[in-house]
């Protein structure tokens, strides 16, 4: 009798053990599921961030107009989409550059890193290509001796002026340097654009600090081609919340020309 009783007690204890293992296994599986879910979430976040970096540094960039040097083509408060893939882009923190699928073209509106200020990014219009002869006579721009058709240009009655910073042009004058050369904002040249250099001007010619003053651009300075306006508002408004109350609806999704 004692043996049978012991056997029963043994079987009872043995039957309880699988139940205990089942509860522990379920808890372990739950922990693994939570751990796996967190891992998948982190992986998704990393992938999304990597995609953002690729788009930001190699495909598209945004740019906000903060000055009137390109009026009326671009207005203060315009938010631009810049195509970085079109003419290539630099690899961050290196001197390497990924080639673009096109070359800079005369008339392009380009975002670039200017030579006179390391922390500044500008947007201007490309008017001078390598080998071009450029000249300005009383605000009229001449390309290879012929007046350029520039319907986008804004001219005012502001008086002309000259500045020592413009004397860089002397080294690339047609016919060679001259000691008597005195360029001004509205009258300069003719200059010959050297190989692998570009000349930029603002469309609002009388208020633009551009290539007339700080010189030529190397191609590696280009950040991208402005292609569209994705948002615009009257940034100079004194009304509260102008980005809500003074949106320029007619400019949104407008192409940059």
Task: Please tell me about this protein's structure.
The protein is an alpha+beta fold and 257 residues long. The protein folds into two domains: 1-53; 65-255, Umud Fragment, subunit A. It is 26% helix and 23% strand. The chain contains three helices and 13 strands. The protein has helices at 2-59, 211-214, 242-245; strands at 60-64, 78-83, 89-90, 97-98, 109-112, 122-128, 133-137, 140-143, 146-147, 188-192, 199-201, 222-232, 254-255. Strand 3 (89-90) and strand 4 form a beta hairpin. The longest helix is centred in the N-terminal third of the chain and has 58 residues, at 2-59. It starts with a helix and ends with a strand.
Tell me the number of structural domains: 2
**Net shape:** globular
SS class: alpha+beta
Mean pLDDT: 85
CATH architectural type of the largest domain: Ribbon
**What's the SSE pattern?**
HEEEEEEEEEEEHEHE
End-to-end distance, in Å? 103 Å
Radius of gyration: 32 Å
């Amino acid at each position: 009798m004692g043996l049978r009783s012991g056997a029963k007690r043994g079987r009872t204890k043995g039957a309880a053990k699988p139940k205990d293992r089942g509860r522990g296994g379920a808890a372990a599986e739950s922990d693994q599921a939570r751990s796996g879910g967190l891992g998948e979430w982190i992986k998704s976040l990393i992938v999304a961030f990597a995609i953002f970096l690729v788009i930001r540094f190699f495909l598209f960039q945004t740019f906000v107009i903060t000055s009137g040097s390109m009026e009326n083509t671009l207005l203060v408060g315009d938010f631009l989409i810049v195509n970085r893939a079109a003419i290539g882009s630099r690899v961050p923190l290196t001197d390497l550059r990924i080639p673009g699928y096109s070359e800079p073209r005369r008339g392009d509106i380009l975002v670039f890193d200017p030579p006179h200020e390391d922390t500044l990014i500008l947007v201007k219009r490309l008017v001078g290509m390598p080998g071009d002869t450029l000249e300005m006579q009383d605000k009229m721009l001449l390309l290879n001796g012929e007046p350029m058709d520039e319907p986008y240009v804004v001219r005012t009655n502001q008086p002309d002026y000259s500045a020592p910073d413009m004397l860089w042009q002397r080294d690339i004058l047609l016919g060679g340097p001259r000691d008597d050369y005195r360029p001004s904002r509205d009258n300069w040249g003719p200059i010959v654009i050297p190989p692998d250099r570009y000349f930029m001007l603002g469309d609002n010619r009388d208020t633009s600090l551009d290539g007339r003053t700080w010189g030529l651009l190397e191609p590696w300075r280009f950040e991208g081609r402005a292609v569209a306006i994705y948002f615009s508002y009257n940034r100079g408004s004194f009304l509260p919340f102008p980005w809500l109350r003074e949106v320029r609806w007619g400019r949104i999704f407008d192409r940059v020309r």
